[in-house]
Amino acid sequence: MNSEMMEALENIEREKGISVEIMLEALANALVTAYKRLPSSAEEALVEIDVETGDIKVIAQELDEEGHVVREWDDTPDDFGRIAAQTAKQVILQRIRDAEREMKYEEYAGREGDIVTGIIQQTDQRYTLLDLGRVEALLPQAEQVQNERYEHGSRLKAYILEVRKTAKGPQIVVSRTHPGLVKRLFELEVPEIVDGVVELKAIAREPGHRTKIAVASNDNNVDPVGACVGARGSRVRMVVNELRGEKVDIVPYNNDASEFVMKALAPARVREVRIHEDTGTAEVIVPDFQLSLAIGKEGQNARLAARLSGWRVDIKSETQLHDEESGGSVEYAEGEWVQNESGELVFQPAEGGEAISAAEAGYEVTAGDGDGDGSPPADAPDAAPAAEPAAEAADDTADAAAESTAAVAPAAEETVEG
Predict the structure, then answer these.
(1) pLDDT score, position 402
(2) 3-class SS at 223?
């Protein structure tokens, strides 16, 4: 080893960022191992490398029982220059590979939760590889959105789940399904979030279908929803495009649980929210025509609202609530069946008040016989038969409609066939 080798090490230091001292230390250790393989080598030895000239010496040592050096001498073999050159090449290349792996790992270590952009290189049933430049990222099948197609050569943003240190270098595991991906995308598009003016409070996501986010403002002059939507929806549109068409609902966060649940169920309009803290349930009452919208397709809107708010959401229509509160029946312990001026049989409560017709009210009325046992009088008809004519009429109407449909269907088939 000579001055030319030292110059080469200095060039490697500039290009690869590996210090000359580290390479010389690794080379000295490797040369000690190579020396001890020689048949006439001493049991203990160290290698000295002159930094200025590159000269190498092997210093053999004799130790006492306590491990102290009692004698040293120069035991450099005659052909050690050739051994040193071969060893130096191997050691330097290995140190370069190790240093590059370490630098790659350090570049991504601690970046869990960050977002990266890569180029799709390879896709199979197990995973998709993304080229991030100096390293590759692994997108497992479990972290892929089902309805997304990853085409070779296209650019893709992903969320870093984990950075692993392996013998072959860092292994970066990324995700396209993690809710954090939506958060990072909004941070890229909304400067107010990065500045801390707008705060993203909660995220609920069903990847590939719909996402709900709750935002709050730390400045009374800034509308958090408007800041995230952007002028004419420009900001949220960029996020939706990156998510490949996934719908995004942005709702204002509210410390009041009932108000927050009400907003979380958007776009449905809610009449009332009753919070039951003992069961952790939010009872939501909506108009009848808003029930399906509040629940969403396959219950998606209700599920996302529950995840976003942290409450178990129980949605009821106004009609369902009325039926539950009324019990669906009216019972009178005392009274009698009488005929009104029109000759209609009605039940007159003994306590007074307006007489009730079972057919008109739509309730099953149990007449009391005056003893409070709830049994009908012997000379009065039961309430159920009084409601039967209306039910029979409805059945007749349904049967007529069915017959009408059956009559139209063959005509339609004939028209198609003709």
Answers:
(1) 37
(2) coil
